[in-house]
Amino acid sequence: MNAMIASTVTLQKVNTTTFNQHRVRVIAVLKACLLTQTTEPLVASKQPFKVQLKAGKRYSWCACGHSKKQPFCDGTHKMLANKIPPLRFVPDEDCTVWLCGCKHSGSAPYCDGTHKQDFIQKAELPTAPQS
Ligand code: FES
Ligand code: FES
After folding, report:
1. Fewer CB within 10 Å of terminal CB in the chain, N or C?
2. 101 lines ligand 1 (CB under 6 A)
3. E-strand spans in 13-112?
4. Which ligand sits nearest to residue 46's alpha carbon?
5. Residue 107: nearest ligand to its CA?
6. What's the pLDDT score for residue 115?
7. Full-model pTM
8. Hey, where are the domains in the chain?
């Protein structure tokens, strides 16, 4: 009986140690995520995107610039820029519009010409991931 209690105590210690190690790792990952979060949008493109929109459909325009599905959100902001959520909108009618790619338009999600300014034209664009 004592051996059984001893092995249970040992097992609990192992579980507690394993849990604490996982907890430390989770905290480290969360800290890394928080420290690498950007608060300024990335210039995804130096030009707008010409897009055909459908009336009544809900769109999520990427405001952070990190999406790989520009000009729309692919959820990457949750990892890289959680303070810059997508801008959601529903067009009233079918239309063709120019959606902002530089992420600095004053009329987001639409292009207002801000991309023509030097700070956008001289900005570094994100590089495609290496394969
Ligand atoms: Fe952003 Fe034109 S692409 S303002
Ligand atoms: Fe940019 Fe979601 S990925 S707003």
Report:
1. C
2. yes
3. 49-53, 59-61, 87-89, 95-99
4. 1
5. 1
6. 98
7. 0.74
8. 1-36, 49-121
